[in-house]
Each structure stands twice: as structure tokens, then as C-alpha cells.
Specification:
Length: 202
């Protein structure tokens, strides 16, 4: 089963070249038993998403790059437009969708949530999920402070910002920590629920 993954967009500094990139951490993640039976399929922004659709069982919106509402660069705008199409497709078909960090922000923003700049969200911090505290990694400068009416909070940080959420009716989840990096799997219950949705839709 293929899980499509959107990539970070980078402009090379030594000579001009726009690049799509996924950290090697993603390959290591998919080698774990947790992802047995799944293969990652990196999505290119230069290929229409419609071409990928029939091959995908689920999609992950990965981290990297700020949303274009905070960074007006061409690359951020390009990424936002492509990921918006993915969200609309997953809504229409109920294809399982998972947002990671920037991906979670993109989903939250799409559904009318509020985001603010934040401090102390680089490195590690605690989240509260089902009344249990977990230490997770954290690499974002913008936090989700209020969710749109279609989304439900699942986990919060000590500053009350939202660290994980799901859609009320659709197979859509968002997580602000990086599951592919160190300390990204301290709490896998949300991730397992999402992976189970893919298996159910097979």
C-alpha cells in the first residue's frame, strides 16, 4: 500500500535550483514494523496530483516550509496550492490524510483554525494526551491556538496550544510533532489509529 508524502521545497544557494526533498528519517520510519505493508511515495509538485490518486491509499503532508500566509515566497505558495488540492481530494474520497507539523498547520488553516507565532516550541516539550504527559520533539514557530468547527482537539501543549487533532467526520488527522524524527514515536496511539484507517479502506 502506497502512502504519498509531500516534500519540503528548497532553493539551492550555490547555484539556482529548486529542489524537492524528504529527510532520510522518512525512509527509516517506513522500515519499522509499525509501517509494515506500507511504502512511501514522494509526491512531486511538478506532477499533477490527479496522476497519483489511483496509486495512493493515504497521504501525509510533511513538515518544512512555512505556510504562505507567513512566508510569501513562490515556493510556499506553490506548496500551499498543491496541498490544498490534496486536502480537497481526501475530503471528497475520505482518503486517510495525516498532517505533520507544517502539514498539520495547513490542514488546520484550511478548516478555519487560528495560528499564532510561538516561543519555546523548538527542541522538545510536553504534550497532554488522554490525561497523560508525553515528551515529544518540536520544530515549529507557529502554534495552533483555536480549531475550526470541523476539527476536534486530541492533545495540547502546556501553553494550551493544540498539538494534535482530527476531523469530526473524515479520516483526517494532524500532529504537530515529527513522527519521523527522534522522540517522534513517544506516543503512537494517534498514528496507529490513522494507519488502521488505511487498512480498513484497503
Amino acid at each position: 500500500m502506497f502512502i504519498g508524502i509531500t516534500q519540503r521545497l528548497i532553493c539551492n544557494q550555490n547555484y539556482f535550483e529548486e529542489r524537492e526533498a524528504l529527510a532520510l528519517d522518512w525512509g527509516r520510519l517506513f522500515n519499522l514494523n509499525l509501517f509494515s505493508g506500507f511504502l512511501p511515495l514522494p509526491l512531486s509538485y511538478e506532477i499533477d496530483f490527479n496522476i497519483y490518486e489511483k496509486h495512493l491509499n493515504a497521504v501525509i503532508l510533511s513538515g518544512g516550509n512555512d505556510l504562505s500566509i507567513y512566508d510569501h515566497s513562490v515556493l510556499s505558495q506553490k506548496r500551499d496550492a498543491y496541498e490544498r488540492k490534496i486536502i480537497e481530494y481526501c475530503l471528497k474520497t475520505n482518503t486517510p490524510l495525516l498532517g505533520i507539523c507544517r502539514g498539520a498547520q495547513m490542514i488546520a488553516h484550511y478548516f478555519g483554525s487560528s495560528l499564532n507565532s510561538c516561543i519555546n516550541h523548538i527542541g522538545h516539550h510536553e504534550i497532554i494526551f488522554d490525561d497523560v504527559n508525553y515528551m515529544v520533539n518540536s520544530f515549529h514557530n507557529y502554534a495552533i491556538v483555536n480549531l475550526g468547527e470541523d476539527l476536534i482537539s486530541l492533545a495540547k501543549a502546556n501553553d494550551e496550544s493544540i498539538e494534535a487533532f482530527k476531523h469530526k467526520d473524515k479520516n483526517i488527522y494532524g500532529i504537530m510533532w515529527h513522527i519521523e524524527r527522534e522522540n517522534g514515536l513517544e506516543n503512537i496511539s494517534i498514528l496507529k489509529k490513522w494507519l488502521d484507517l488505511i487498512k480498513e479502506k484497503k
